[in-house]
Design brief:
alpha+beta; globular; five-stranded antiparallel beta sheet
């Protein structure tokens, strides 16, 4: 079993996420804990009011909601009663046994799993500490539950046998297939709550994987000047299509203000999450001395990391973003370190050193600086932008000589005497 805990400042958005899944027929509401009404009689407002009344006891707590998913091995097929028993024991062991909570069984992934919705405000108004809840209580609880219920253990297995947990159960938005707002709502709500990003470009790197764009407009547009935000559907070529929808028109309000709070929260990431991406890049580059960046992207894709390259209209690479679907982190290349930026990755892939390889097709027409200079005047009419870039790269490429003068033979410089200030 794998337990994933997410915290939120809005219990309504977490509840709506699961209720929308029920309405679409890809999830079931299977039970509740510490609710005074039978499960069959629980309406949407009854579920929500139980939470909001408790949250009113402590309005100073911002992160007051928890969204937990308990994920099981694909080979397991548990009954609803057993899933409720597992959820009840788990909530009790992490200190939420007396809290109101709702349990939903989802059917939209390749493995069985349940989602638990709850809050961390107790009946006396005190706050349950969520800091390191996973390490302090969830991990020990998970191991005990695996043993008690005879579940497939998540540890001690080979990588190829690890749980194949889908990061998000959403598909690409296709204009005209289903209602635009409904399709956008599902993608946006899932991604902004499931992934960690620290800027709008990083968020868009994930959204574009699902044909969605968060757009502020041009700097002189009415939307930009009013600090607004609209969401657009992209076609297969990445161009906006259809009518944009304001962020404020969605029930969970994914406005620029809300995203700004997310950016601040996600500034600090786990060191292990960054190390995982860096190690994957380093290992991929060790396999071959030189390869195109497209091949690097394919190697990283096998590790669950999507690489987004940004190029100019001339085809020059100027930016790179890494999306780790396993840890659900988005990193701009330079945020991982200079050696993971676009320019450095291009160099590490061997493209800039390919001039030394005479058999490399990229430079087969540019064998040396001397020949380039001699023939430049005859070729200038046929040169295009990429050729000029290659020429400039060669002409500005630093050359090193092995000739050196021993230190004892070098002429010593005479030190200039500093004049005193009058």
């Amino acid at each position: 079993m794998v337990a994933i805990i997410k915290t939120s400042h809005s219990i309504r958005s977490v509840l709506n996420y699961n209720e929308n899944k029920v309405q679409k027929g890809v999830a079931e509401f299977i039970g509740a804990g510490n609710y005074p009404v039978d499960v069959e009689k629980l309406t949407y407002f009854a579920k929500l009011n139980r939470f909001t009344k408790r949250l009113a006891l402590n309005e100073n707590t911002k992160r007051n909601s928890v969204h937990i998913s308990l994920n099981f091995d694909p080979s397991e097929n548990h009954s609803k009663d057993k899933l409720m028993g597992i959820a009840e024991v788990y909530m009790d062991k992490i200190g939420f046994g007396k809290q109101p909570y709702l349990v939903y069984q989802h059917h939209d992934a390749g493995h069985p799993h349940v989602h638990i919705v709850s809050i961390n405000i107790e009946r006396d108004g005190r706050r349950i500490d969520l800091h390191h809840l996973g390490i302090r209580k969830s991990e020990p609880a998970r191991k005990e539950i695996e043993k008690f219920f005879g579940l497939v253990k998540a540890e001690g297995r080979k990588n190829r046998e690890q749980f194949n947990l889908k990061p998000i159960s959403i598909s690409r938005v296709r204009y005209g297939k289903i209602e635009s707002k409904k399709a956008l709502s599902n993608v946006i709500n899932t991604i902004i709550n499931e992934y960690k990003y620290s800027s709008l470009p990083e968020l868009n790197a994930v959204l574009k994987q699902y044909n969605v764009l968060a757009d502020r407009g041009s700097e002189k547009s009415r939307v930009f000047l009013a600090s607004g935000l609209v969401y657009r559907i992209l076609d297969e070529k990445g161009n906006p299509t259809g009518v944009p929808i304001k962020a404020s028109d969605f029930y969970f309000k994914p406005t620029l203000k809300l995203l700004g709070e997310k950016f601040k929260q996600n500034q600090i990431r786990k060191t292990s999450d960054k190390v995982r991406v860096k190690n994957a890049i380093n290992m991929a580059l060790l396999r071959e001395h030189a390869m195109p960046v497209s091949k690097l992207a394919k190697l990283l894709e096998k590790e669950g990391i999507c690489t987004v390259f940004r190029r100019s209209t001339e085809g020059m690479l100027y930016g790179v973003t890494y999306i780790d679907h396993t840890t659900r982190n988005v990193f701009n290349g330079s945020s991982l370190g200079k050696e993971y930026s676009a320019k450095a990755i291009e160099e590490r892939c061997g493209l800039r050193d390919a001039v030394k390889d005479k058999n490399n097709q990229m430079y087969e027409k540019l064998p040396s600086k001397e020949s380039l200079i001699d023939n430049l005047q005859y070729q200038k009419e046929n040169l295009n932008i990429p050729d000029l870039v290659k020429i400039l790269d060669l002409l500005t490429h630093a050359e090193y000589t092995s000739d050196c003068i021993p230190n004892h033979l070098k002429k010593k410089r005479s030190k200039k005497r500093k004049r005193g200030l009058s």
